[in-house]
Design a protein that fits this description.
elongated; mainly alpha
């Protein structure tokens, strides 16, 4: 994603990297995680462990 892009500043690169990390952790759906994003899956697992 980033290796073919020339950024005009470090701030522009940082902003794009933060957007990508947000997408990767919060929005990206994984079939092996029951169709949840990584954060949703972790939150569900934590909630289940607190009820034990």
């Amino acid at each position: 994603m980033f290796h073919h892009t020339r950024h005009v500043s470090v701030d522009a690169f940082t902003a794009e990297l933060e957007d990508y990390m947000c997408w990767y952790n919060h929005i990206r759906i994984q079939l092996r995680l029951d169709g949840l994003s990584p954060i949703e899956y972790r939150n569900r697992a934590l909630a289940a462990s607190k009820t034990i």
